[in-house]
User: Fold this.
Amino acid sequence: MSVRRFWQLLASWICGIGIGIVGSTITLLTFGVFARTLSPWIVRTWGKSMLRLARVTVSVEGAEHLSSDTMKIATFNHGSLLDSFLIASIMPRGSVAAVKREMFYYPILGFTMYLCGFVFLDRRNSARSRRQMAAACKRMARDRLTVFISPEGTRAHTHELLPFKKGAFFLAIDSGAPIVPVVIEGAFDLHPPSRWTTNPGHVRIRVLPARPMVGLSAETIPAEIESLREVYTSELAAMRAERGRSALAPAALAVG
Assistant:
């Protein structure tokens, strides 16, 4: 491992643990009174700091679709460890993330996520996961929360999307909240699952208009899953094509 990669890994852990300690302390000292305001700020600070350490820049299109103070389910494609930092960096006020239950046991960071109100889902126990989703629905209605969740459930090992799971759609049925697709392009190339560290580069995030889930039922979930997955497939293809054209443009100008 090169010196730069070793420093990136070490600095990332120091930064994450440091922000975790500060965030946990602030939340505990204020008895969680300002959690709705403080938690997204703590999470955004962590995400932006981690991206800065990795020398990754981000451009966001359609951020206005996340800005309204209403219940929403923000889904995102998940192919890289970078996704956690990217989503954290754009989380607006009144947002939480749904994460796998195992993350609760990460030293310091897990406790910080708990205090920040993250939704921990047990992927190995569907009954427990549904109970956790039901509790999340009550919080969404009470606090007008936006919940970020990956319908793939885990990271893909190629550029191809994994099959979408039903969790986000059951959450939409129970809460009545619309789904806002968040499309991440470029993260996989900078930090694929097989890597410990990140290559410097640029990532684009495109937030699409909300998809109302009125009329969604357990019977119609499969059709909605295919429809949403097709949205991601076509949008990712378009964004990759745009990236390819922008990369060729300087060369074309130079030749001309």
